Amino acid sequence: MLRRPKPTDSESDLLREQEQFLSSGTQSAVNIVRRPDKRRGDIASDDSEKSLGNQRDVVTIPDFPDQLPTLTPAPPKKSRFKKERVCFEDEDPEELLDRHDTHISAVLSRIIERDTSAVPVSFPAFTGTAFPKVLHRSTIQTQVMAPRGKKSIFASQIAAQNAKVRGAESQKDPLVSTPQASGSSTVDGPLLLSGEGLGPDKAEQTLKIHQENQTRLQGMSHSEILEEQKLLLAQLDPRLVDFVRSRKSQKALSPVSPPPQREVCPDQPESKTVQPQCAKPQLDSELPVKPQKEWLHMDKLEPEKLEWMKDLPAPRRQGTKKAMQARFDFSGTLIPPAEDLPVHLGLHHHGDEPELAGYSLQEIFLLSRSKLTQQRSLALNTLAHILSKAHAGEYSTCLSGSVLASLLDAGLLFLLRFSLDDSVESVMSAAVRALRALLVSHEDEECLDATFHWLLGTAVFPLIPPVHEEEDEEDEEGLAKSKKEMTKEREERKLDHDVARQDIALLKMQLLQRLRYILEVVRPVPRTVLDVLEILIRIARHSTFAATQILDCPRLMETVIYEFLPCTWTPTSSPYPPSLYGLPVSTVMKLLRVLSSTGRHVCARILNSLGGRRCLSRFLAMEPSVLLLEPGEAICCSTEALRLWAVSASYGQASKLYIDLYPVLVKTLQAAQKPCGPSEPLQLLELQRITALLSLLTQVTHTAGCHEELQSALLRVCSYYCRSSSIICQPVLRAPSPVAVPSLPSLGCCRAQSARGLVASESPLPLFTALFYLLDNLTSIHRGLFSPLLLAKPMLAYLRCCVGVMPSVSHTSAWLLRHEHHMLYLLLRLAHRLVPVDPEVAKHAPLFHQVALALLSWLLPGSEYLVHKLLRALPSVFLREGATGGPEAATLAELQLQEKFTPLTGLGALLRDALSHLPSIRGCYLTHLAHMEQAVLSSADRHLGRNPWLTSQLLPELTGPSMPSDWPFLPLVSLYEQAGVRQGGGLQVVALPAGALQSVVYCLQWLLLLESWREQALKTVPAGAKLARLACIFLCSSDLFLEQPVQELTWALLRGLTQSGRLEAIDLGTPPPGLASFHDLYVALLAQYEAVSFGDALFGCFLLLPLQRCFSATMRLALFGEHVGILRSLCVSLEQLPVPLESFTNPPEDSLPLLGLYFRSLVTGALRSDRCPVLYSVAIAHLNAFVFSQDAVSQEVEATRRSLLRKTYYLTDEVHPCRLLLLYVL
């Protein structure tokens, strides 16, 4: 039998099968007949067609008609009544039976001719009535009466006809038990044949056919049966085969026991279908409530719907610790999985787990896209509650991951943007509320308002998220202009999802236009209006660009000021008016204040173009009690007006208002001296108003330029700075918030406000900052009056706690750290003035110096002026060791009898020389910080109160501290970057800049002073990073490290790094800051040593340090594998080695490739004791320990060991090192 082609056959397989078919001579299954072309009009007879049979190819299949059957159109559809009444005369009864035959035997094939003699044929009865029959309502109602309620005419007629059909069928089919019904033929009868259509004796015929099939199967072998089965399966449709097999499985799974006998009453025929009246009494008893007659649509029972009214099973308690999906109620509270809540709360629904109460985030998102307005509004309000609780950190302890991040990744922003455009006001208000819960932190705003009256409290950081730039390989020689254009085009091409993931400012989503439409056209309820205003405040705090966009949005600010900050309004009798339109709102005044703080030009637009001066005059000319507003709202409007004026005065603007409103301000200041009672409900608001007035007077004083000496009495200092109130000393408070999202910066004030004494009224930060500022000015007049403050034990304990700490910088902590840094700076300024005149204060000069050095690494952007002042004034005063015998003590400590290597110059002499060059050292560092000049000038204008020169109250973007933590190494790193030009992946050394040698010497002297007397100042710099920074000396020039001052200072620093207490802290496995890995730096050092070292011992010691056993073997492999030529010039003696030799030999080496390189360098003579004594001793020790070790090792190690022994034995040179090693051991 020829094989049929398969889809996987290639062209050669098809050709081979064609040759086999042609050689077999088998007749083809089809015949090709050529027919005449009918388009030419050729009409011929059958003979002519046969003669022209080869003119056209026609495929003919046996047992298939040549002509297609005629297609007759299907009869039009008829109604149920028309089908019953109309009968065609020429209709064939057999076709009628075939049309109603749906048995499986009709699907497979015709096994036996169908016997239709016993099939009854019913024809419509002749009637004398008219056609169609006229229906009368009285007739229909008498025929069939509805069991319950009233039915329509059409339903009554259908019920009457169904009753007739059931009666006729019950008369035709008496209850007679057949063998099949009784179960006698279910044991070994046919599974597919039912006998329908075989006549009266269909059971006998079916059994006979089954017995014939069984006899035939028994006469066949197993192989023949399988072959016939395969042939049958190949011919049948696979879907038909699956249908037969499923039918067989259903029959096989049916119970073999006979059905239960039913009792039949002889007087009443039994129907085949169960009447509803039989099951009704049982269902009525199970109903949760008894139906009433008056209830609509309760006449018919629906069991499948009643299932939902049953009580839910109790939630199953999870026995494992497997995480489950979080579910929330409508207030955003997390529902425990095992909590069983009642169903009347509305928290159960038809979800994946109907027995569990609550909604998951996916289900809430699905509900927010519902067609029903109430469901959309409910979902958005629930999301608002969840966002508020997530910002407060209520889910951080019970949920894994961040809820905010999950919602943002799921597309929350786009859902809210879509919901803001909803035509239903309730849905739109719910979307605004959810957006406000996402963007605005109520605690952040309260804390910023509380710190507004602090010294420099008007300045805040912009809430710009950190930008993670894509790493694109660009040519460094490209023009800056084209680079900016490419960046701008890349930003414009970003999708909405990418923009939202990076920064949730929503400015590219046309949010401002949507908010303007809501305020201007929709005119929502008060709660929605306040939410919109708070969203605008949060956007204004983002950056100056965002504030400018708010002002540039058409009709936005005009609508806000006209509707919610009018100069005339009608007072309302209710404390909660139904609408805020036409009434002053304090939040609008706060919005103007926040916008003004973003820049002087924005402030000028608000005062001049938007009517800010008119608003200030209106709300400050009168007392809050006569503003015809609710008392609390009136005080808030007056307070925000004073704050807005204070911000304007910080730019030197709105100065004429001070003259006009001077009597009002003096009257308010005089009234502030009268203390309010403790029971006064508005006492806190009044205090905020007074502090705002003081902030205004401070800014006006700065603008006027009156810096007269303060002659007032001093405040009695009776409090001390509590350590628990410091954010520097508390890692928990300065750590980033666990619920923070990188693309949505926040201050994290939920934790800061709950902490004791941070922003509360008893917080020491504003008091001490202002006090030290006052004392700083007073000590410039008279010194020595405030020594007890610096010598207080709590103050000294606080300063000791600050030393050696590196606070993490984020938006969560920076807003408070800035004020504490300023307070520390003023405290150090006070100590700077008292140390030269007070011996008791001078005893603590090292502590003050360590705090100053630590503060240099902490100061944030906007505090560059403080950096400049600290570098200029503090080192020469606080380094008192020169006058107290510090260099002599260092010289005595260096005298050790066991020391074998004596340095060229003693440590004491180096320290004494460094102290004499402190002014030059200060100038060196100020020169390398010259790029910060513009930032220093801007910061000086803010700190010195030069208001006319201020451009904005927004501080620079928060990208980290102003100074790096390793700032003492700055001259070395700068020189390395200037001297090295990247070409071809390497470093090409060019000529050193002028003054580079002296700059390096000053840098090394300063480092030596810090390492000797201020070790805590460099504690935050890892030891590996220090070693990497010192290595720049050898890479920035070919002969800089050969200079004698550089040699002496570098030797002293190297000995300090390799002391017994510091050597263990060196970690070269962690990449130092600014480097991809220390291995890359070491490879560059190897190449530089090979080129320009001249066998220098200092350079050699830097190469030997990373070869210790505690570090990675990759650096040892790089030396002995790729740079083995260095071994001929690495002549560092054992006496010059700054670390013990045991750190190179213990523990024994276990790297087989490295041991092989040791052996090869000894055999080839590259490693000799007279050229490289240190590594020669190391290689001999490791090979000795490896070859003659008695430990049980693997087969590979043992084979390598025997190979080395064999090679050593066959060496011919009797004085070879490996031969001597073997003879020594033997």
From TrEMBL:
Keywords annotated in UniProt: Nucleus, Transcription
Cellular localisation: Nucleus
GO BP annotation list: transcription by RNA polymerase II
Domain of life: Eukaryota
Start-end of Polar residues biased regions: 20-30, 177-187
Keyword Transport attached: no
Pfam families: RPAP1_C, RPAP1_N, TPR_RPAP1
InterPro entries hit by this protein: RPAP1/Rba50 (IPR039913), RPAP1_C (IPR013929), RPAP1_N (IPR013930), TPR_RPAP1/MINIYO-like (IPR057989)
Domain called RPAP1/MINIYO-like TPR repeats: residue spans: 968-1193
Region annotation (Disordered) ranges: 20-83, 165-199, 249-282, 469-494
Domain RPAP1 C-terminal: from-to ranges: 325-390
Keyword Nucleus: yes
Extent of Basic and acidic residues compositional bias: 39-50, 478-494
Start and end residues of each RPAP1 N-terminal domain: 208-251
Family stated for the protein in its record: Belongs to the RPAP1 family.
Listed name of the protein: RNA polymerase II associated protein 1
The species this protein was found in: Electrophorus electricus (Electric eel)
